[in-house]
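Issue 218. Parser rejects a valid record. Input:
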Amino acid sequence: MDGERLFCDVGLAERIERAEVRFVADCCDATRARVGGARGFTRPLAGGVATFAEPDSPFNKVAGLGFGGLPENLDEVEAAFAELGAPVQVELSQLAEAGMGAFFTERGYRLESYENVLGRRLGGTEFPTDVRPVRDDELETWLSAMADASSVADDQGLPSNEHFPRELLRNALRDMAGVRRYLAERDGEFAGGACIRVTDGIAQFGGAATLPAHRRRGVQSALLRARLAAAAEAGCELAVVTTQPGSKSHQNAQRQGFDLLYARAILVKGTSATRSSGAESRQAS
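Output the parser choked on:
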C-alpha cells in the first residue's frame, strides 16, 4: 500500500486469487447441495480450482491459476467439462507466472474477454442511512428483486456480454456462499442490493444490481459505502470488486476510491457460452 493508493504486486494478486478460489468453490458446493448435483465437481488445480455447479452456471469455471505452476492434470479437467457438455472457461490473472498464456493458447484456448479486479484499503467510511442488511424473512423477496434488476442490462458504458436467464440469476445469487446481503431503498421502495464476503482479511464485493427505475440515483454508490463501512468494522484490510472494463460499475468503483489492481483474461475452450466469467454477478453495477 502506497499512501492513499494501492500497488498490486504478485503477492497481493495471489492473495486475492486465493480468496476467489475459496469463494467459487463454496458457491459451487452450495449449488450442488441445492440441486443434488452428483455430476458436478470441485477439483483443486495447480493452486486454483475447477468447478462445475449446474448447466450454464456462472460458477462453472477454472479460477485462481497462475501462482502454483502449470496445471499438469488439465487433461482430466477438460474431460470432466466435456463429459457434461460444457466449455472450459479459465480466468487468468495478468500477474500470473510467465508462460501461462502461451500454455493455454497452445492447447486451443481463445481469448474471449477481460474483467478487472479493483481494490482499496479501508477506513473512514460511514454506513449510509438508506442501506441496511437483509433480514432472513426478506431473502426470497430480495432474490426476486435482484434477479429482476440483473435481467435488465444497463445501457450506460460498455455493455455486458453475459446473458443469464432470470431463474439462473436468482439461483446464483442464492448460492453465493458466506455472503452478507444488503438492500438500498429510495422513497420507501426497494431500489437495489449487493453482497459482501469476508475471507482472510479481504472483503469481496459482489452480487450488485439496481432496479431500472432507480438507476443514476446513487444507489450503487450508497451500497459501496455501506459495504466499505461493514468491511472496516469486520477488521478487513482490503476491499476488492470485479467489474467489466469500461462499465458503469467500473466507474462507480473508481469514484469510491478503488484502484485498478489487475485484469483477468477469460480464456475459453469448447463451445462458447454467451457470456464471460460472471463478473456482473459479483460486481457493483
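Fixed in the parser; the record now loads. The mean pLDDT is 90.
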